[in-house]
Amino acid sequence: MSCSGEIVDEERLIQIKPGISQQLKKAKYGVADHSTVELCHWTKKSFKHEGSCYKHKFYGISTHRCMEFSPAGMHCE
Predict the structure, then answer these.
(1) What is each CA distance from 39 to 64, 67, 72, in whole angstroms?
(2) Which pTM does this prediction carry?
(3) Which of 11, 27, 55, 69 has the largest count of CB atoms under 10 Å?
(4) Percentage of the chain lying above the pLDDT 70 cut
């Protein structure tokens, strides 16, 4: 089964179409097969030692290790 924006190869693996993959990469997403990763504003600031988000303050989560991940990135807006 395939959704728009996906390719299903011989091994039945779902992948993002190359054109959509390039658009996502241009928008600063990490792209791998059918998944995407986006670093939030605070994660980028943490790399530069310019601050951290509420997750660090309240939960002790290291901001530089935080990310937004989607196993179906092309379907998220």
Answers:
(1) 9, 5, 16
(2) 0.56
(3) 55
(4) 73
Task: Supply the pLDDT for residue 58.
Answer: 92
Cα dihedral sign, 18-23-24-30:
positive
Tokens, residue 11: 């091994």
Here the tokens at position 21 are 């993959």
Report which of 70, 74, 64 is spatially closest to residue 19, judged by C-alpha positions: 74
> Contacts by 35-40 with C-beta closer than 8 Å and gap 24+?
35/69, 35/70, 35/71, 35/72, 35/73, 36/69, 36/70, 36/73, 36/74, 36/76, 37/67, 37/68, 37/69, 37/70, 37/73, 38/67, 38/68, 39/67, 39/68, 40/66, 40/67, 40/68
Whether the pLDDT of residue 3 is over 60: the answer is no
